[in-house]
Model the fold of this input.
Amino acid sequence: MGDIEKEISSLVSSAAMVFIGAAIGAGTTLIERIIIGRNVTPSTYGDISVGLAIISFASILSLLGMKQGLPRQISRQESKQRIADISSFGTMIVLLSSVSTVAILFITRPFFLSRLFDGEIPNYIQYFLFTIPFIVMLEIGVSIARGLEITWYRALLRDIVYPVLRISLIVLLILFGFTKQSVSISYLISAMILAVVIYSTLISKFRHHIRVPKFETNVLLFSLPLVISSAASILLTKSDTLLIGFYLPSAYVGYYEAAYPIANGLIIILSSFGFLYLPMISRLDANDQISEIQRIYQLVTKWVFIATFPLFATIIIFSEEILSLIFGSEYSSGSIVLIILAVGFFTNAAAGRNRETITALGFPQVELYLNLFAFTLNIVLNVILIPIFGIIGAAGSSALSFLFVNAASTMFLYNKYDIIPVSKNGIKIMIILPLMIIPVSVLVFKSFSIDIIGIAIYTIVCYAITLLIAIILGGISPLEEDIILEIQSKISQTN
Done:
């Protein structure tokens, strides 16, 4: 097996591990939302969703772009001392940044944050602010491990242990009567514990190389454009929640946030490939292996699309049933919102890891401009559409913004490097699959109701048909055969 096959084999192996963690993490996060949604009113659920959006945005700002910048810089280092120095600098600067962010938010909360709620900020929401430094430390620790190409920090600790611990604490606090406070307290305690665990293991790896960090100008200059890009990217997904909270009663935020995590689940498979993707592409770029970058990019995009499409079809066909089964019948009115959001998120799977490829190739400023424009477009559309169409307008704004940023990112890669996300066979798969499956499914299943077992059976059958059509249209390339054989060899060795 050649070097490129080994790279892709490592990427697929990592993706499999991260996917398991991400799937469990997404599942537990959805369970967390179900527990909260079924124990509070839609209005309170809306307030909690706004609180989570605030700490998500504040954490991204506090990371100063280091979440993407550190893995890229670390992956290019061979000296353990340099890795330790860069990691220490990144940790120190984001810790100072996160503490400053908490102080600013706490001081300005009566003037700014209160406008996002129906009246005064609930006390249980204010506890979220103290969670920010610990979430930031957790994320930066996982980013350091990403640069070292160590997968289990994310797959096990962040994607499984962290949400499971949160759910356990939420249930415990609800049982003791602290229903409204359960979410913020559980996030605080869980993030604190995970941050300590992650840094304890990292320190043990570099205990002989840790020293007072020097100022790493190159690391900061590369990462800073990414903080605005990351903030714009997270606001692209969270500005809907904040603006719905501004324009409409909190109950509407609750309806919207019931649909959002389900649609967001469509990018789990795409995210699974991302953990090692950035450092791997960055390393190939350092060796001027552009053709290999395109091969990896196209292969990842093809199989992410194939693996995601059945889930997308299931959500489109059974949106109302899914919301009713998961959150209760009072949330079923968000079915149109769920369909629109699913379309938006599915464009990410169809375009592949385009923005991460741009960053790995050394153009963080391009990702910054794209995310800023998409964020601005989303805000403008939300301001126009939410007062007219309510939460359906918010969903449409997000979908259009996702479509723009993916189209623009793909065009940049093509114009700059002649890199396209899909091969000719991949294009056939992307066109024919939806045309063959979705219209038939609508005609067959929209005429009668279906339960959760029926939905599960449909999804399994859809996966089988999707794989069969994909093989007929695109076949399995020699490269994919080599990778499958290599993975089978690794599995047999472990057994």
